[in-house]
Specification:
Length: 147
């Protein structure tokens, strides 16, 4: 048996592996709407900063997302022009699959609207100060009613 390796096959497998996690899928779908700071992704996904960082690193290694640093903040985006062909095809396939979003994706869209309008400095400092805790203004459904 011959051990055949192909760069194309490896790239396809890398993109497929990167998209095999539901949190990474949600992150990529959120980035279709435009660039997001890692703090916004943490808020959307409800995961710890280190977990989101690991997920985004996997997506970047597969060529599915790009990042840039702005001071202490890291911003992620999809840049298909710079992505390898296999990653572009995976992103196209994902767009096709997400045409009829399910409940989670619809909820993500609604939350993303609130997250995008929140003050980025407030959101990021609240996460740093509370080890990933979410400011109450972004989760109105979890607020306690006034007494």
């Amino acid at each position: 048996m011959t051990n055949y390796r192909s760069e194309t096959a490896d790239a396809i497998a890398g993109a497929a592996k990167a998209l095999s996690d539901p949190h990474r899928l949600r992150a990529v779908l959120a980035l279709r709407e435009g660039e997001l700071c890692v703090c916004q992704l943490i808020e959307l996904l409800g995961l710890s900063p280190s977990t989101v960082s690991k997920h985004m690193s996997i997506l970047a290694q597969a060529g599915l997302v790009r990042h840039r640093k702005a001071g202490r903040w890291v911003h992620y985006r999809i840049d298909e022009k710079e992505s390898p062909p296999e990653a572009r095809r995976a992103l196209h396939w994902l767009r096709e699959c997400a045409q009829a979003p399910d409940g989670q994706l619809l909820e993500d869209r609604k939350r993303l609207e609130r997250i995008r309008t929140a003050d980025l400095a407030v959101l990021c400092s609240a996460q740093r100060g509370r080890a990933g805790a979410v400011p109450a203004l972004l989760r109105p459904s979890q607020r306690r009613p006034p007494r």
